[in-house]
């Protein structure tokens, strides 16, 4: 039976799966299977949809992240920050019905919990810039 999580817990689970993805070429289904086996991870539908959706769009998400990470090469961004940026940006662009501000805030909160000292501010700045650009493009 599927475990029911809050949206915040589901995002955190999706982030952890995406973080693990930064260490392997395995696809998300293999990562989820390994996580269930190794740590008895119980992911719900929302967290799996977020992780799989993000994985499918990594090249285009990374392109946007690179464009808004002024003076930061993607390879210099911490795995935590990169995973959170990917997840939040996927949500902002592909998950309808979730306010952009919620996606950004959740990423910043997870960065405070898992990231380094500067990750939260960096993530907030990058996602804020992307959100302003996306809004400008929609209104053009």
What general form does the structure show?
globular
What is the percentage of strand-forming residues? under 5%
Tally of individual helices: 7
Low-confidence stretches: none
Find the count of extended strands (DSSP E, 2+ residues). Answer: 0
CATH class descriptor name: Mainly Alpha
Major pleated sheet: none
Order of helices and strands: HHHHHHH
Name the average pLDDT: 90
**CATH-defined architecture:** Orthogonal Bundle
Spatial gap, N to C terminus: 46 Å
Q: Identify the CATH homologous superfamily.
A: NusB-like
Domains (count): 1
According to CATH, what is the topology? N-utilizing Substance Protein B Homolog, Chain A
As a percent range, the share of helical residues equals over 70%
Radius of gyration of CA atoms, rounded to a whole number? 15 Å
Structural class: mainly alpha
Q: Could you explain the architecture of this structure?
A:
This protein has a single domain, classed as NusB-like (N-utilizing Substance Protein B Homolog, Chain A, Orthogonal Bundle). 73% of the residues lie in helices and 0% in strands. Helix 5 runs parallel beside helix 7. The radius of gyration is 15 Å and the shape is globular. The termini are far apart.
């Amino acid at each position: 039976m599927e475990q029911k999580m809050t949206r915040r817990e589901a995002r955190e689970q999706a982030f952890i799966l995406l973080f693990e993805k930064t260490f392997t070429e395995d696809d998300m289904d293999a990562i989820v299977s390994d996580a269930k086996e190794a740590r008895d991870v119980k992911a719900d539908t929302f967290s799996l949809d977020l992780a799989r959706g993000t994985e499918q769009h990594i090249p285009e998400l990374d392109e946007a992240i690179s464009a808004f990470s002024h003076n930061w090469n993607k390879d210099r961004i911490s795995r935590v920050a990169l995973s959170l940026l990917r997840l939040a940006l996927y949500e902002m662009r592909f998950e309808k019905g979730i306010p952009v501000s919620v996606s950004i805030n959740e990423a910043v909160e997870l960065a405070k919990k898992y990231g380094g000292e500067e990750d939260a501010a960096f993530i907030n700045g990058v996602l804020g810039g992307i959100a302003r650009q996306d809004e400008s493009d929609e209104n053009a």
